[in-house]
Amino acid sequence: AVIFDNGSGLFKAGIAGDSGPRSVFTAIVGRSKVKPAMLGAGQKECYIGEEAQSKRGVLSLNYPVDHGIVTCWDDMERIWRHVYDYELRIKADERPVLLTEAPLNPLQNREKMAEIMFEDFMVPAMYVAVQATLALYASARITGIVLDSGDGVTHTVPIYEGYCLPHAVSRLDVAGRDITEYFMKLLLESGYSFVSTAEREIVRDIKEKLCYVALDPTQEMKAKPEEIMKEYRLPDNNIIQIGNQLFRAPETLFAPANVGVEAPGVHKMIFNSIMKCDIDERILKEMKLQAPAGVFVRIIAPPERKYCVWIGASILTSLTSFRQMWVTKSDYRDFGAAAIHRKCF
After folding, report:
1. Which of 10, 21, 59, 190 could form a disulfide with 14 if both were Cys (CB 3.0 to 4.6 A apart)?
2. In this structure, which CATH number among 2.60.120.200, 1.10.357.140, 3.10.310.30, 3.30.420.40 belongs to the domain 2-142+303-343?
3. Mean pLDDT on 170-176
4. Which segments within 264-335 are labelled E, that is strand?
């Protein structure tokens, strides 16, 4: 089977049974700013992934997945077609496909996925699974609460015996992209201006390499500047020095008010989700502060968590018992796009 993990920032694709995805690229589509009729030889109307990133100066860029939800189906279909033709180099009608979705994804989005896959790609069978559930499978568990914070959206998802509990899911529209933007603002206050889309990628790289979550941000703010100062070499070989911005940016996950979002932080979201049910050390500390005495809290953060959802999907589709879960072409013929709701919960 083929597995497509549709993230807001990264698209992961591969074949079931593999230990990791074969193709990982930025989920972005770039269209030429000039009219198609005026394109020169060798120029394409649209570019996908890293190719679009490298030509960002002459393209208008679009992320088809925004805050975990597909907002542009034409571009999403282009990405899927690109993966089949150029990344995996296999025919869509030869293998079933498993697609991932965010918790609380609108039902019509799921139906649209089924429609495109059966009508346009002619897949023999498909399945749609919630990303957080798959991430839990990847850590060899079927019950737990998953904090899924990607590029576009953060969810806390309680899962019992492999089933997501929708009534207890909490959603926060603050994630990696928002932290990058807030980090850009903090750097600007220090005199470092990063404004273009190309410069945004530099800031994202600084964030991924140097930023950290402080165990106690108040204490960290009292530290001497030289104790927390880090250096980063820019592509033009200039070196910049960055101080408390390195932990103030990720602090947004615990204090969304920093970016103007009136919502509880991730530690409170987790607690609220647990209460509605029948980032590691810091989360553990916050959870222990809120948990009653004697309640043991354990946080699992596997090193390969960037691909946890994809790995979980690979495990799930490799199970012999999963064969009966596929939504087949005959199901689609009998029940239409709504067939997807009969087996995918």
Report:
1. 21
2. 3.30.420.40
3. 93
4. 327-328
